[in-house]
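Justification of resources, computational component.

The compute hours requested in this renewal are based largely on the per-chain cost of generating structure records like the one below. Each record pairs the submitted sequence with a full structure-token output. That output is archived, and it is also reused by downstream analysis tasks.
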Amino acid sequence: MMRTGFISWPIIHWRRRILQKTTMDNRAMIATGAAVGIAAVITARALTGAGSQFEPPILDKREHQVAFGYVEDENRGENPMNPPVFREDPYFWVRDDARKNKEVIKHLEKENAYTEFKMKPLKKYTDSLYKELLSHVQETDSSVPYKHGPYEYYTKTVEGSSYKIHCRRELGSEKEEIILDENVLAKGKKHCDVGAVEVSPSHQLMAYSVDSTGYETYEVFIVNIGTGKVVDQALSETAGRLTWGRDDKHLYYSTFDQAHRVDKVWRHTQGETKDSDILLFEEDDELFSAGFQKTRSERFLFIGSQSSETSEGYMLDLTKESTEAELIAGREKGVLYDVNEYRGKLYIITNKDDAKNFKLMSTSVDQPGPENWKEVMPYDKDIKLDLLSSFKDFAVLYGRQGGFTQMWIVRGDDDDLTRVEFEEKAYTVAPGVNEEFETTAYRFSYSSLTTPLQTVEMNIESGERKVLKEQPVPNFDRSSYESDRIEVTVEDGTKVPMSLVYKKGLLNGHDPKPCYLYGYGSYEISIDPFFNSKLLPFLDRDVVVAIAHIRGGGEMGRMHYENAKYLKKKNTFTDFIACADELVTKKITSPDRLVIEGRSAGGLLIGAVINMRPDLFHAAHAGVPFVDVMNTMSDATIPLTTGEWEEWGNPNEEKYFDYMLSYSPYDNVKKANYPALLATSGLWDPRVAYWEPTKWLAKLRENNLGEGDMLLKMDLASGHFSASDRYKLYRERAFELTFLLDQLKVLRTD
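The structure output for this chain reads:
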């Protein structure tokens, strides 16, 4: 779990922790709109300008000293400063962990009212953009059915319905059976996020988890599929992930500690109370979080615990009655490994022996210890290995090479690896849904900046590939767009990639164009070039879209990440600034025509760069922005803090205090002509608390010398991943697009 929008730029969100969310589920297309009269646009902007009687809310200041360093009876890390250092934070009082403080809620409501007032003259554009987003969505649609036992399973959406419907049909039959309708589940709820849907081995039961607040805490229900009746609802306050054992008797799940860290893995016996559940694993070290995964062969349940830099794994043999998991390799500081089972062996992807970009090793199931691990393929520093997906007679290895995702097929013998080649130069591949262990067919997803998401099936024996489905995108002509990849040489000589996509022929001229620049740059998360229909409102208005693949991300391998964490974190921000400068130098754009966006840890990026170079950007959108770095990272009671001491450092320690203070966005607000800013957030966000952007906006308004708006939009019924209702999600994106396109002076309606 981390502060992330993951690779969801710029609006659909995933949780890295719950892997059943696809990494490329981001598909609505937007058509070109006709221009409106320039006078109407000027009038709209004039109405939203400065000098209005509706003034921005003022947040009271109240004295409060925040301690950095040693505090009695608190976890402040290994080497807290003693005596501690104190810093004044006059807005600290806005923090309310329970989200019930009426004074705070009232202030947030005022912020929303002010933002609505400022944006009201542009409402017709927001409405038009919403229709534009939907005009390229096939609202009634279904996923490609996948074989699982005697059934084919799939999901579908229906026009006008906000949520997915989970279905199945017997093999060879066209008779559809609805096993879970999320629309029914969502009735009466402001938020409804289904985390996992797991059918039991007999296919008679289904377990699902649901979060009704946005705080990412899930209730679990077990349903008899035949009758539709709930037969077990003993589990609550879980982390959402679920896995059945080898039969319908046992269900595996995990829970949180008080700081919302996944610390326990449990086995639940179907039909019994939670009190009788067996605790399989407990992680006491607050740097680590626990997880679990069942092998496709159904023989093992792997239970792991991992920090950003160290991992430890166990295996539980599900063919035996014992609940004692066997240690694979004890934790060794700096050593990461991930385990899977293939052809009766354990296959390990690890950075052991200083393999920075990881290597593939194997050992027998009976001798899992690291002293028995042997290399399967020689270590290649230019290939980053990430994941092994295994089947009875083959496995698929995923990683990165040359800045892009790659996949290799492993057939039979250990050394028989074949890389899968693709025609496009820039693309993204990811695992598809593959439930069957004994198969010769493998599914994966494929996309590029101009190719909508494809579900591809490969015959492993022949190598033949077939596109089972390309996501329908009405009124979209891919030949109208082109993409490019350039390298930006930053100050220390590192080459940072940047992807561009734009209307064909747009850059043939020499005049600067309006430009949208997106960045993230944390947790080794890569912003890969995949199709994102929500970019089309930019592209169809002759806006150049740029993605800065800055350090802190994993695009160029592990060192691309490690060279922008701890005391090198500012490389993320200077890389982004260098990319923006390159766009200006090449006359692709100019500062007055450049808008930027980042979400979560990408919001930290936005906050940092507008402090460092407020002159370089015209406007910015910071979604769920992690901007109060010092306060958040000093307090172990805040979700994610302890685990992320291995990302940013711990400001309670002298080693990191000054450096982190030098870039923390909230702490570095100054008197400056800031770009116009929209910050969006969710009251129930456990990853980046609502008080961070609230305090940040108050401080920015106090110091801003510019004339641009400073707006905060707080969703009082959602969390980090925004609305669960797909139509509400499109409306939210239409609102954000209205703000950015207005700043670029390219708003129009059909």
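The longest strand covers residues 230-238. Confidence is low (pLDDT under 50) at residues 5-52.
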